[in-house]
Amino acid sequence: MRFRHLTAWLGGISLAALMTAGANTAHADQITLHALMEDVPETQIIEAMLPQFEKDTGIKVEFQKLVYSEMHDKLVTQLTGQSSYYNVLEVDFLWAGEFPEAGWLADLKPFVDKSGFDLKPFFPSMLDLVGYHKGTLYMIPMYNYSMGLIYRTDLLADAKLAGAYKAATGKDLALPASLAEYVALSKFMKASGGVAGAAMQGQRGDPNSMEFSNYLFSAGGAYLDKDRKVVLNSPEGLKALELYVDNIKNGAQQGALSATLDDTYRLMCDGKAFSMVTYWWMLPQLDSKEKCPNVAGKVALAVMPGGHGESGGWGWAIPKNESPELQEAAWKFISWVQGEKISIARGLEGHAPVRSDTYENKDVLAKYPFYKQALDVVASGQSFPIFAYSAQYEDVLGRQLSLAASGESKPSDALKEAADGLDGLMKKSQ
Amino acid sequence: MTDLAIEGGRAGRTRDRWAVTGWKFALPGLSMIAIVMGFPLVYAVLLSLSSFTLLHPKLQPFIGLENFSTVMADEYFWHSVWLTIKYSSITVTAEFLLGLGVALMLNRVVRLKAVYFAVLTIPMAMSPVSVALIWHMLLQPNLGIVNRLFELFGHPGFDWLGSTGLAFWSVVFVDVWQQVSFVILILAAGLASLPREPYEAASVDGANELQQFWYLTLPMLRPIAAIAIIIQLINEFRTYDLVYVLTKGGPGISTDLLSYFAYKRAFLGLTINEGSATSFVLLGMVLVLTVLFFRIITRKA
To answer: Is B248 within 8 Å of A203 when comparing Cβ atoms?
Structure first.
């Protein structure tokens, strides 16, 4: 009796073990890709489509979402190891020099050739920004984040404000044509409009570096000339920094010096700011009745006054320290998500395309007429200097901008330090 | 004689066997410590003396103290050093004074003591990043609760993290808010363990409360207080997470503490060798201060 019980018991355990082993085997057959993604609308759009990819290919993709400021360090620590937890990489254009220089990314050309993936529909400017590095294709452009001016149309059309503006400046209240006009308008709105003239992201580092770049390009300045010589310390650069400091002090919201993108979005969404210099794809978020009922229907997008804003984008890449099997699976995902069909589907959800065929798609244009302005923003954008130490330069520049904006340093001194810092890092990278 | 020699020999052999057995038992633990603590420390020393960067990840060639001199040649390094000393001094002093005050009050509480202690441990149990995120939202100048409270009284509130004058003190406040409970618990435990007899004798001799505190409580509490202060000093010198979440070292350079400076060198500049060198400077400062403080405390005791 006891023996029979023991046999039954052992048999039960063996069966359970076999079933578990079977389940493990079945589970092991399925490839799961992990990607570290910035927690922005674009990621949410793609995430909603992942079940479709899994259904089509049997490959599961899991996104780990983080705020931008934490992504670089997390990726660097993974990529310096023997293998990376992340099999698909979302790479910012600021790291597009650093990651390939460090030897962390796989060459994507063999994958493109093998699969016949068509690169022609991608904007050449995007392929230059987040595609090729020194002639090798390390990334496939993912989405674009050029920056422009988002402003409140209702405040600009307000008759009372228009009268007050005319009385104060002798000019009509209209969309500014230059950076100086924009800062003057921002200060007027703060003084008379009951809102912050500009929701500014002045926190040291990426936020204020990106924001200032718009002021620099808008004022006609640049970081580098055609020969990649540093030309930041110029009359245009000084004008841009003086206007930036003026707007932080007299046009922006309280707390601008510690504000990030999230802070400025919340402020604008709450109806407490007239404008923000930001990524163009923030418009559908602000124009949404569900998300921002206070300002939906009252916001519009324009190219930075002065004609040029900061250009930016993300690319997909595959880590070098990854097995060929997982690299192949990662490429399947990248070619799927950046293919024409999914790009248009993402476009219909508010995606910031990097393919010309998505911008030209009738359905996309019918749903989002402002993509015409977005195209202007993308076409007129200029880039932050991309090299191995771009991320460090953001910190160097951000520190000087913050010192100038907080009144601890003169704009001329801060600009000189920022230019010298860029020069030093450029030389170090050679 | 022979018997004694045999006895002595046996005792010696027993002692040797005990010692060997002791080492055998300690060996796994010591090995783990060597792997977990020793290896990273030695590796960090090698990094700080090498040309290893994340772009060129090779230890060789070793470049001696060049990383140290490079870091020390940076004017912002010295700013971070002085700021870290200032920050640590202020936070540790505030934590000790507040902690002592609360611990003395708790020492007299009889009812609901467990509840008070449970509430006090909550900030200590939270991770610094969570604490920083919570306070970042509370101190947000436009939508945060703190400024909303000021608005109720007709004041627009303050730019807690965006003003060079206030940001440093805001980080100090958040740090003290979290860390003070640790000091309270240590000092409260110390107070509870003090003998009652000296107090009874002092009362008989007519000593008042203040005299008892000054001549009995403080001297008897000194060893415990020294431990609390040294632990907090080490903690505060290493402060990184609060700065990372709350201010990123800004505005300007007003909260650019040395740990954050080291992080930027290592991960933004990709010069992990210079980051390691900075960390060893920080370690050196902590060691010197700890030894100095310990000697002062023990000499007085």
So the answer is: yes
